[in-house]
Amino acid sequence: MNSTDTSRLPLKVVPLGGLGEIGLNMMVVEYGDTILVVDAGLMFPEEDMLGIDIVIPDFTYLRENRDKVKALVITHGHEDHIGAIPFLIREFPIPIYATRLTLALVEEKLREHKLLERTVLHTVQPRHPFRIGPFEIEGIRVCHSIPDGVGLAIRTPQGVLIHSGDFKLDQTPIDGRRLDLARFGHYGEQGVLALFSDSTNVEREGYTLSERDIGQTFRQIFRECSGRIIVAVFASNLHRIQQVLHLAREFDRKVFFSGKSMVTNVRIARELGYLDFDPDSEATLAELQRLEDHRVLMLTTGSQGEPMSALTRMAFNVHRKLSIKEGDTIILSSKFIPGNERAIQNIINHLYRQGAEVIHEQVKDIHVSGHAYREELKMMLNVVRPTYFVPIHGEYRHLVKHKKLAQQVGLSPQNCFILENGDSITFLNGRAIVEKQAETGRVFVDGKGVGDVCDLVLRDRRHLSEDGMVLVTLVINKEHREVLNGPDVVSRGFILEETKPEILDGAKCLILDVLERYQAEGEMMDCGDFQLEIRRELKRFFQKVLERRPFIYPIVVEI
Amino acid sequence: MNSTDTSRLPLKVVPLGGLGEIGLNMMVVEYGDTILVVDAGLMFPEEDMLGIDIVIPDFTYLRENRDKVKALVITHGHEDHIGAIPFLIREFPIPIYATRLTLALVEEKLREHKLLERTVLHTVQPRHPFRIGPFEIEGIRVCHSIPDGVGLAIRTPQGVLIHSGDFKLDQTPIDGRRLDLARFGHYGEQGVLALFSDSTNVEREGYTLSERDIGQTFRQIFRECSGRIIVAVFASNLHRIQQVLHLAREFDRKVFFSGKSMVTNVRIARELGYLDFDPDSEATLAELQRLEDHRVLMLTTGSQGEPMSALTRMAFNVHRKLSIKEGDTIILSSKFIPGNERAIQNIINHLYRQGAEVIHEQVKDIHVSGHAYREELKMMLNVVRPTYFVPIHGEYRHLVKHKKLAQQVGLSPQNCFILENGDSITFLNGRAIVEKQAETGRVFVDGKGVGDVCDLVLRDRRHLSEDGMVLVTLVINKEHREVLNGPDVVSRGFILEETKPEILDGAKCLILDVLERYQAEGEMMDCGDFQLEIRRELKRFFQKVLERRPFIYPIVVEI
């Protein structure tokens, strides 16, 4: 790194998502008039985001620098890295760069959203750098729970940035494609300005198991099972799917694929040669019904207890075509993602009710993580040996712990930065400055609406969800304020009215009391005041008799 | 057991809660005209029970047999065993039997609910049987995460029932009170008709650690900490609290107790001699502010991320008197209960933002379970050697696995029964029959209302929470169906109206279209049809433009 050339412009990196949260990964790399976007992921809604379908990053910073936005580079094909692409491309029709499999998954997604013609897709070959404006970018192969992931080396006029992508070390990966440690080391030798590295598993000591290690547990289960086997797994976990398909061949079971994303991903992976699977081994639904139990393997989605998934519908016995039967063994081969445990446990209980046996990661080693543990994170830090370090992909505590880890391997605390979404880190002649850069946040997608549900709307939903609502309708004569119709009081989600008819009757009496005041006060009280007063009285009343705070909406019409 | 005496009546056991779920523990033991109730616990609401405060068992079966209900026996003082007592006692003013500490906690609860005079409290001494009608009952000491727990031996004319309570084996309990294996064995030798045993941890292999084992980890943390230490723990976990208090003495830290239940439980336990703690070691709030950091220990509730707890308020920096500072170490010394993970992780992130270090069970051994693991469960089965076995306290999968475990240690499958709440098992002359006995379910407590929120009301709350609501008001002339006022369309929790004013405008136009039809149709269409038609049209419209399904409530007033 030559720090004396003062003609160079500052290099700016602005994370727009994925720092302080898991998911929603997106990062801006900016030099002069060029903005490169790395990843465009979604996040699945948290419990208090009522009614929200997905969450995407806030593109405001990109909008403010619209002309600069030149390209999108994707590290791998998980939803938390590609899920926001349709929303991004709709606004910014920029070219997309990714490896073969990743690109195929992106293509599928864009086709679904009818956006394929809005962009150009470029295949990234690891170890084959490509140029975007002032940047020379190279994909560096990493291992992860989806094939074809890469980290990125981004050569800029201010020095080289390394973005780890999501990675783990796996010395015996299923597809034989190891993390390209030599290439990370090559850049480390040359000098790396800054490393941005995945923090997801910084709380876990040691090393991840190899994907191959769990194969033995699977084989044992296949050996002992005489009934049908149903494996639920993320459709993107093609390594896992490959292992299971190998076992199906070994134990002479035919395979039925269930779930839309499972079918799609398996098709794409087979077309591109990422899955080794004999088409004759696939069972149709009709064959499935005829096969003896010990010849059946089903591969399905729904390992997170997703309400509409095939597995959930089977568990609750409401699937139109498939059902669980006594003697089935269901393997949930994924992590219980925090927030989903209750849903998953619920499915498991129902599967047991149907007479099945269920095996999951909490009782057997049938899952390994795709994210590096502490020792692997240290190795990345030591191989890349960056001047500056910014932990990414993690909640706040992960970022703090990753920063501490970096110090353990010798980085100076002054050179490690905890950034949050919207912060920028600017590199100029070997120095780094962190600032608050952009207003950024999360954008909610609800049905077809993007961004039209904000915190205010969610607050109302939460209020409505807590104690329901009470509607009051009253039509009165404008002149004399006499009742023409009502007061009618109806409630929803508030109380089963039959059990306590006195509640709404009491409410009516109160409204009539307020009306008397309204009639008496004349000009001292207008209709707005009257409605406010109704709300206030009812609020007090419901609090007193029920300790509830429903949403109260009085509608007074004067004619 | 003498199975030839035909003068004996059948003995019936009916679980009313705790089978097929964790929490809500309650069981009826019935012989002739006597019903003995074992435990009366609550459950905290699951995510989809919107706005519900707590859940209690359905007492219908007791109501139908009101005259028979003679006494309540409590195994230990956890909320899932005592939390429904006020609701039970309000309806059934029966005497309560429990050990000293348990009884003191029950007394406190009844006093709060102003129900103390409605019942009589009897102290149970382990190994001192007492009689209730045809039953002779003996408390058998067990270890658990609260002191003074017992299992029960219930001698009946049909034989002896053993109820394990919640138990674990702990060879080195903090209070020196071991599980009374000899006494369980004594009954086992004499012959036990049926064992009802805790299934909570049947998925966990081996043995639980002793409570004392985690003391070393705690000591290590105390040794290394130079800042303040804040331990968050269940207020009922007096063993844990005792260990921490011993360490406070050892490391010369003064103790500040925070959180209502913490203060109450510590007071009760000290009064009864269940906590060894020098009153001079307690710090007042004023002292707390003055003490040097390395002299401070805070014991607080909120280890589950409860929104109103002291710890949560400190984490979000909204506590009026206490705050977190750089260098604090917070120890969350309890399990992450499924369903609470997101809330807990959220707190942890905020604590890190405040500059604190957080230690929890997922990074260090600072928690042990109070429920027996598989080897301990086997030991209970082997010592008690029952003729019949019924797994209790567990979700469905736990019950299935516990049943299988019982078969592993030699019980015959025909003698192991999976019961669900409301099923009965009847013993008559050595035989056992399982039947569906009672309609039972869960009763929701919301504020002051008990049972007035049912599934129907919850469904409305869920609907309202998903996409909010849209209200339509229209006043028309009865005779000519001309508009006198409106249509007005307002929404809550549906959409931020400013972002898409065309949505509600579009809705208004649609309503006017429907009105035209209403005006044209005359008697063919009444006002009810009109409102239905408005709802139908709007539903279709919102689905089309936004893919949302708000709650639509049209109010048409004809005057």
UniProtKB/TrEMBL annotation, chains A, B:
Superkingdom of source = Bacteria
Query: Where substrate is bound, by residue?
Result: 235-237, 367-371
Q: Which residues bind Ca(2+)?
A: 51, 53, 446
Q: Which residues form the active site?
A: 198 (proton donor), 371 (proton acceptor)
Major localisation: cytoplasm
The record, for Pfam families, names:
Lactamase_B, RMMBL, RNase_J_b_CASP, RNase_J_C
List the Gene3D superfamilies hit by this protein, alphabetically.
Answer: 3.10.20.580, Metallo-hydrolase/oxidoreductase, Ribonuclease Z/Hydroxyacylglutathione hydrolase-like
Q: How does it assemble?
A: Homodimer, may be a subunit of the RNA degradosome.
Q: What is this protein called?
A: Ribonuclease J
Q: Which organism is it from?
A: Desulfacinum hydrothermale DSM 13146
What gene name is listed for this protein?
A: rnj
